[in-house]
Design goal:
By secondary structure, the protein is α+β, with helices and mostly antiparallel strands. The protein has one domain. Helices cover 32% and strands 22% of the residues. A 4-stranded antiparallel β-sheet has the order 1-2-3-4, with no helix packed on it. β2 and β3 form a beta hairpin. α1 crosses α2. The longest helix is centred in the C-terminal third of the chain and has 25 residues. The radius of gyration is 18 Å and the shape is elongated. Bound molecules: zinc ion.
């Protein structure tokens, strides 16, 4: 078995983030010192909990960027393309829609 994940291995939140990007929300980290130059903006994904810590220089350019991922974040197989993720996401949504319709018929 490969050490790298495929779309079907991802949980729903991680699949969504890998497919359409993270849902960033700014926050103030308590465990980061002020940068030695420039200024920091930190973000946490509302879906998967990933963090992004950017330091911008006085010209507004990104001087550094750090990502911190949670345990559900895995490396994707290098053969996986964005369209593979979209196909898997669509497939899961179709299954959920069918289940939802079935429940309505039974109820
Ligand atoms: Zn995310």
């Amino acid at each position: 078995m490969s050490d790298y994940a495929h779309p079907q291995d991802l949980d729903a939140d991680t699949l969504m983030c890998r497919t359409v990007a993270h849902q960033w929300d700014e926050f103030t980290p308590i465990n980061k010192r002020p940068p030695s130059f420039g200024w920091r903006m930190s973000f946490r994904c509302l879906r998967c909990g990933a963090e992004r810590h950017d330091i911008y220089d006085s010209f507004g350019d990104v001087a550094s960027r750090q990502y911190v991922y949670g345990p559900s974040w895995v490396k994707l197989d290098k053969e996986v393309r964005r369209h593979d993720l979209r196909v898997n996401l669509h497939s899961r949504r179709r299954v959920l829609a069918r289940r939802s319709k079935r429940k309505k018929v039974v109820a």
